[in-house]
Amino acid sequence: MKIQRLGRAEASGEAGALMELATGLAGAPQWGRAVWDGMIAGLDERGGRAGRMLFGAFDGGRLAGFAVCAHAADEAEIESIAVSESVQRQGVGRALLEVAMDELRRAGVGVAHLEVRAGNTKAIHFYVALGFVEQGRRAGYYRGPVEDAVLMNRGLNQ
Question: Is the peptide bond before 145 cis (omega within 30 degrees of 0)?
Answer without folding.
Answer: yes
